[in-house]
Design a protein that fits this description.
460 residues; alpha/beta; two-stranded antiparallel ribbon; binds 5-hydroxymethyl-3,4-dihydroxypiperidine
Length: 460
């Protein structure tokens, strides 16, 4: 049986500025928090940085040609704030705006629709020096930045994303310190999450005022949580993780409030004062819950959750289905395609966004070129096929999924992992900057051309 997609379904691929552009000091681009973070010892697995990355800043015509040859209909990329406003606010940098304008024009020429993400983590360091996301002024600065970019590109770009993965910005950047700016503070994490969401809410009407006929949304990374056993303890732990990971972002966006059970937990832990969410000011929740045109969902894995508490005799023994290493990607993330269907149906039922795009889905596998320059990344093909099937099932069950963006177009700088993890359907030799299409890119071409996938198709 063949799973057919609608004619309007958007097949795309995604990247982000810091991960691919390089040219970190060119054309007046200023330092970003990631440039600074990479200079700090022990932050990046291979000691690398984004100074050259895929050199996309120079090789973008070639990268558009690659996308064209693959057949993608849309390209999701992000704009580097430090290229547009080197001082974070104030005078825009014409060279930065001109770069993205050329990119957009050439994409349209190649019949590839741009989806622009305004913030994919490269905050100007100057704004960090003024306090960064834990400070409300950064939300105001974001609106200024969003206004400048949308004024310049609004007549040509059909899809706008305010932020990529607020959970990562808040948690990895401000709680665990694994990402820039490397802060480890729960109160700062919570303030960051709020100001990122607030800046989204404030920016949406501004973007709309500068664009016509365009769709505006935000991208969240979602992780469906599964209790490790039927015990009450594990169910409780799964509820809590779901609240911190998923509902903390979806509830404000769609219900105009933070989840009360998690607010209480943060208060009990001492991460919030007993008085609650002091950073929430009058009108904030209304601003955050502004209606948008779509929700972008990034899906990579599920979470199997086990309580730290010891179950009492009445509870069932807890069995933890530990994923086998063969079923994990090079990131150690379990391959679990049904989690995508599950989270899509949950979002559809609980939050009802008018449209959903899978704005990222993909996997890291090391497969590289053989002596004939062929790259048989069979595991990636299996991964893509199984997740696309899962999307199709969700559509059949009623979820309004309008498109799928494969992460990523090409191997790139994978944040704290440097260049040690390869997510691309295009291989990049980081010494020569040579690009080679992997077998997965060829398979993606077929899927796009057929606009369909076999329900258990064989790998060619
Ligand atoms: O590379 C990242 C991307 O920048 C954000 N989403 C997850 C990807 C894989 O880790």
């Amino acid at each position: 049986m063949t799973m057919k997609f609608s004619e309007e379904f958007v097949w795309g691929t995604a990247t982000s500025s810091f991960q691919i552009e390089g040219a970190y000091q060119e054309d007046h681009r200023s330092e970003s928090i990631w440039d600074r973070f990479c200079t700090q010892k022990g932050t990046i697995a291979d000691g690398s940085d984004g100074s050259t990355a895929c050199d996309h800043y120079h090789l973008w015509p070639q990268d558009i040609a690659l996308m064209r040859s693959i057949g993608v209909r849309s390209y999701r990329f992000s704009v580097a704030w430090p290229r547009i406003l080197p001082a974070g606010t104030g005078k825009p940098n014409e060279a930065g705006l001109a770069f993205y304008e050329r990119l957009v024009d050439e994409l349209l020429e190649a019949d590839i629709q741009p989806m622009v993400t305004l913030y994919h983590w490269d905050l100007p360091q100057s704004l960090q020096d003024r306090g960064g996301w834990p400070h409300r002024d950064t939300a105001k600065a974001f609106v200024e930045y969003a206004h400048i970019v949308s004024r310049r590109l609004g007549d040509r770009v059909g899809y706008w994303v305010t932020h990529n993965e607020p959970w990562c910005i808040a948690t990895l950047g401000h709680l665990t310190g694994d990402h820039a700016p490397g802060i480890k503070s729960a109160p700062e994490m919570l303030a960051t999450a709020h100001h990122v969401l607030l800046s989204h809410g404030w920016a949406v009407p501004v973007i709309r005022s500068e664009t016509s006929n365009t769709k505006v949304g935000i991208v969240v990374n979602l992780t469906p949580t599964y209790p490790a056993s039927p015990s009450d303890y594990d169910a409780e732990a799964a509820r809590s993780l779901d609240g911190r990971f998923n509902r903390w972002y979806l509830d404000p966006l769609y219900k105009g409030k933070y989840p009360e059970d998690i607010v209480r937990e943060y208060q009990t832990q001492g991460d919030l004062p007993p008085t609650g969410l002091a950073f929430v000011k009058e009108g904030d929740m209304k601003a955050i819950s502004i209606k948008t045109d779509f929700l972008g969902i990034n899906y990579y894995f599920r979470a199997i959750v086990r309580s730290e508490k010891i179950p009492d005799e009445k509870n069932l023994p807890r069995e933890i289905p530990v994923p086998s290493p063969e079923n994990c990607t090079d990131m150690g993330w379990e391959v679990y395609p049904d989690g995508l269907r599950k989270i899509l149906m949950r979002v559809h039922h609980d939050y009802a966004p008018p449209a959903i795009y899978i704005t990222e889905n993909g996997c890291a596998y090391a497969a590289g070129p053989d002596s004939n320059d062929h790259i048989k990344d069979t595991q990636r093909i299996q991964y893509i096929e199984s997740h696309i099937r899962s999307v199709h099932k969700a559509i059949t069950e009623g979820a309004p999924v309008m498109g799928y963006y494969l992460w990523s177009l090409m191997d790139n700088f994978e944040w704290a992992f440097g260049y040690t993890k390869r997510f691309g359907m295009v291989w990049v030799d980081f010494t020569t900057q040579r690009r080679i299409l992997k077998a997965s890119a060829q398979r993606y071409t077929e899927i796009i051309r057929e606009n369909a996938i076999g329900d258990d198709s064989n790998i060619s």
